[in-house]
């Protein structure tokens, strides 16, 4: 029996040991770049000259990277697309109905006094629910419409990629975490409301996922849509003033980007992206928000 050392002495090295059909594909790759190679008699190994080993490994690795998501998933059916995007519309509709009840920002309104981000109440009195209830309140109509229109587009895209339940869970987590980081790092009392922190988290998620999942060395064109949505949202909200919280937007975006890269590059939590989990994850999100408001209004 000829072992690896014997082959090496003959000036030949094994660079791949895979099922036969895979080796045939790798053989085509090496033929395309002009590297001499052979299949061993058993058909289970791919052999190349020792002096071409590094070049062969490089081209095979490039081929694997470029085809890591191949074959492509089956096209999403209209029914599946509707199933994944409907909850995004439902969530935006709930924000509209709540705004219809609360109206614009008012420091005298019970829902704002109990639900807005209040740094002193959160850090000194432990009113954690404000990190999440504030996401459902809006300062004015422009604030609401910007989040619903542009946020709805980005959230709809994320829902198709990750599933609607998992998407909403990540949005609430990035929004709440963004609010918390913002108040911790501020040096003075602070109050704010708005779903825009979660929307910027969604933009970060989409960018992180796009970069992490792309097999192309230049995936940056694909991030123009989420970046454009973020710029448009900032333009609608304004870049300053008491109703615009750039700190929360920034932290929401950063946290969303980190989560997106983790999901895209390391493929963590893939099981939670399966279709069967989505209704349960979405229900957990609704229960978390209702529980937060229940705690706020007690």
From TrEMBL:
GO terms for cellular component: membrane. The chain crosses the membrane at residues 85-102, 141-159, 166-185, 191-211, 223-240, 246-268, 280-297. This is Rhomboid family intramembrane serine protease. Keywords: Hydrolase, Membrane, Protease, Serine protease, Transmembrane, Transmembrane helix. It comes from the Bacteria. It is found in: Membrane. GO terms for molecular function: serine-type endopeptidase activity. Residues 126-263 form the Peptidase S54 rhomboid domain. It is a multi-pass membrane protein. One of its GO terms (biological process) is proteolysis. It comes from Desulfobulbus oligotrophicus. Its main location: membrane.
